[in-house]
């Protein structure tokens, strides 16, 4: 998968998504708007503000910039990934 396959590329899991946004340099960039959902690890209400973000329990979440408006595209990468 090339660096620009973020919109059309498919990902096996959340680690692939996190690796992709890190490679693209978007992991610390602010998303156009925050996404709100419950953490799948601890159940806490979570506000995701960057393309890679971390819940208070350490679960890492990532989403590609082209899917930043779709909460169903956010994937968990793992604790402290």
Q: What is the topological layout?
A:
Blueprint: H1 14-24, E1 30-38, E2 45-50, E3 52-54, E4 59-62, E5 75-79
Explain what this protein looks like in three dimensions.
- There is one protein chain.
- The chain has one helix spanning 14-24, and strands at 30-38, 45-50, 52-54, 59-62, 75-79.
- It is 14% helix and 33% strand.
- The protein has a three-stranded antiparallel sheet with strand order 3-4-5. The chain has a two-stranded antiparallel sheet with strand order 1-2.
- The two termini are 21 Å apart.
- The protein has 81 residues and is α+β, with helices and mostly antiparallel strands.
- The protein has one domain (14-79).
For the record, the count of structural domains works out to 1
- List segments where confidence is low: pLDDT < 50 over at least 5 consecutive residues: none
Q: How large, in whole angstroms, is the Cα Rg?
A: 11 Å
Beta-strand residue percentage: 25-35%
Number of helices: 1
- Average pLDDT metric: 90
**N/C terminus separation:** 21 Å
Helix content: 10-25%
Strand sequence of the main sheet, in spatial order? 3-4-5
Report the major sheet. 3 strands, antiparallel
Task: Tell the overall outline.
Answer: globular
Given helix and strand content, the structural type is alpha+beta
Count all strands and give the number.
5
Tell me the series of helices and strands, N- to C-terminal: HEEEEE
What is this entry, summarized?
The chain has 1 helix and 5 strands; from the N terminus they run αβββββ.
How would you describe this structure in keywords?
3-stranded antiparallel sheet; alpha+beta; two-stranded antiparallel sheet; 5 strands; 81 residues
């Amino acid at each position: 998968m090339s660096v620009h396959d973020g919109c059309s590329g498919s990902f096996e899991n959340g680690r692939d998504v996190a690796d992709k946004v890190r490679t693209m340099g978007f992991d610390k960039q602010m998303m156009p708007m925050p996404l709100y959902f419950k953490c799948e690890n601890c159940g806490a209400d979570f506000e995701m503000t960057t393309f890679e973000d971390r819940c208070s329990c350490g679960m890492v979440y990532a989403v590609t910039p082209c899917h930043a408006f779709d909460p169903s595209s956010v994937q968990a990468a793992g604790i402290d990934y």
